[in-house]
Design goal:
Elements: H1 8-16, H2 19-26, E1 31-32, E2 47-48
Antiparallel strand pairs: 1-2
InterPro entries: Haem_peroxidase_sf, Haem_peroxidase_sf_animal
Region (Disordered): 30-58
Biased composition (Polar residues): 30-45
């Protein structure tokens, strides 16, 4: 595509981003469970900001 704004690698990275990744990258929240939309249970581990991919950060 002539007017494509993202490379194919960037598009692949965007498609793999989760809501957890977005919350952790864009807020001061450091620990988020894998699915932030469900109520946490004892089985849910928290992800730390260090686990969140940072390839999209500017």
């Amino acid at each position: 595509m002539k007017d494509q704004k993202y490379t194919s690698d960037e598009i692949a990275l965007i498609k793999t981003a989760t809501m957890r990744d977005i919350i952790m990258r864009n807020t001061g929240i450091q620990d988020v469970q894998p699915n932030p939309f469900k109520s946490p249970s004892s089985k849910d581990s928290l992800a730390n900001i260090k686990d969140c991919g940072s390839s999209l950060e500017s």
